[in-house]
Each structure stands twice: as C-alpha cells, then as structure tokens.
Design a protein that fits this description.
Length: about 290
C-alpha cells in the first residue's frame, strides 16, 4: 500500500485523507438483468447500426459489443448506506443526490468485464460518509453504450417520480470513438445530456474522455482529443456555477505512466481502470468537486 500511496500522490497530489483503505462492505448494489432491461429499450437506444469508419474492424467490434450486451450490462446502484447521522445541532442534514451517468467507465467494469464491477462511485460515497455528509450516490452505467444514444435513458432516469438530483456527473464518448462517430457528433451527444440535466435543475460535472491503448482504434485517438478540446471550450463559455469540467485524461493518464504505474491503475485491456484506478477516479472527482 505504501507504493500505491506514493504513486497516487505523485500523479495528482491527492491529500492522504482521501486515500484510506476502502470499507465498502455495507454498500448496496442492485444489478438489473440485461434481458429485462433491453426488452424495455427502444430500438433507437440500442447500439447504432451506423457503419463505423473502421471498416476492417467492423466484425471484431460488433462481436465485442454483442458480448457486452449478453452480460448484465446495466449497473444501477444506490451506494448510500443507511445511517442516522445528525449534525451538531442534533438535526438531520439536507440530503444531496448525485447521479453518475455513462458507460462501462461509470459502471466500473474491470478485469475484462466478466462480472466484476467497481464503480468510482464507491469511493465518492465513502468520501461523503466519512465526512458525515448526507449524500446519496447513484450509479447508472451501461457498458458498450455510445453517448449519442444515451439521451432517452437519461430522460427516463430524470423522470422518476419523486426523484431529483443536485449533481449529475456525465462520462461518455469512448464507445463513440470506437464506433467511428465524428468528434462533433460525440460532442453534440454530450451537450444534449448536459441540456437535459440542466432542465432537471441539476448542476453538471462533465468528464473528458480518458486515454486508451487499443491497437485497433489508436489511430482514432485524435477524435478523442478533439472532443475534449470542444469540452474545454464549452466549459470556458458556460456559467461555472451550473457546469464544470473535470480533465480525467490529464489527471489520470495512461500512456505517460510507467509500466509499474499502469499495471496498478489500468486494466490490461487498455481501456478500463483497475479497482485502484477507479478508486483514484473517485478521489480526484471528490477533490475537484468539493462544494457538495
């Protein structure tokens, strides 16, 4: 653990108070089976049949996405523990609700995705619990989903009776790059999610698309970088109180790490973080968005 702490500190200067060992045994997960979920999903929501730019890669990519959809692809989790914490005035604190919305990077897919999930929301929830804050973190991630198809799912999430979110954290775009969507289409898809979140009355934390190292699509990395540049421009032209941007690709890089660091924080598939990587994501989001 000593080397892990040192590497985390060297990467992002994270205060040690955020790097305690996890104690998430009493966190509650609710996994929704993919067959039940997919039966209620409209055809426009499913992975697009649009021809990708990677024509030679099409068959392999379709196989990968089919495999993803055969697994329990929806991770819908409410991570808040049942507590009776009160403040110094012996009165309950106002509860905040945070929605983490996106694809497999939000769901916490790791170790090849074969039944292992460790969302960065676990670390967020632990952070709030440790601080005695009355916050409920909800994770809604669909592995393999493109952000250009997330709008309807987010609508359903926000239209739940009696449910509201103070913050919505949106992370998407990796699958869109793999499917050959243009940077502008990806950015436009993300903006639609931001608009829905804003109409809901929530504050928004956008997250840049992280680096990846997958030989079949590495030559499309420029699309990822262009999307992130668009997000930066959008961030600088938007009211900061309503929208903020977290540069995940800068604070949790992949390609600039040493081999030892990469094994700690990134899975061998070259796309997803390890459990330690997801924990670091949670630490970084906590530090960036410490106003909750």
């Amino acid at each position: 653990m000593g080397i892990l702490r040192r590497i985390k500190n060297s990467l992002c200067c994270v205060s040690n108070k955020y790097l305690d060992d996890d104690d998430d045994d009493d966190a509650t997960f609710v996994d929704e089976d993919s067959s039940e979920y997919n039966s209620s999903v409209s055809p426009s929501f499913r992975v697009s049949e649009k021809q990708p730019l990677l024509s030679s890669f099409e068959q392999e990519e379709n196989t990968r996405l089919t495999t993803l959809q055969q697994h329990p692809v929806v991770l819908k989790s409410v991570l808040r523990r049942k507590r009776s914490v009160v403040n110094a005035a012996n009165a309950p604190r106002r509860r905040y609700n945070i929605l983490l919305f996106g694809d497999s990077l939000t769901a916490g897919w790791c170790e090849g995705g074969y039944g292992t999930y460790h969302p960065y929301g676990l670390r967020l929830q632990k952070h709030f619990d440790d601080k005695g804050l009355d916050v409920e973190v909800t994770v809604s991630g669909v592995p393999g989903e493109c952000c250009v198809h997330m709008e309807e799912r987010l609508k359903r999430e926000l239209e739940q009776p009696g449910k509201w979110y103070d913050w919505i954290v949106i992370l998407g775009g990796t699958n869109d790059v793999f499917q050959g969507y243009s940077a502008w289409d990806i950015f436009d898809g993300l903006k639609k999610l931001y608009t829905l979140s804003s109409k809901h009355g929530a504050r928004i934390l956008g997250i840049t698309i992280p680096e990846f190292d997958w030989d079949a699509v590495n030559h499309l990395d420029y699309q990822r970088r262009i999307v992130n540049e668009h997000l930066n421009v959008y961030n600088n032209s938007t009211t900061r109180n309503a929208y903020q941007l977290f540069l995940l690709d800068k604070f949790l890089p992949m390609n600039s790490l040493t081999e030892e660091q990469r094994k700690i924080f990134w899975d061998s598939d070259g796309i997803h973080p390890t459990e330690d990587g997801y924990d670091l994501m949670g630490d970084l989001v906590c530090i960036h968005n410490g106003k909750v």
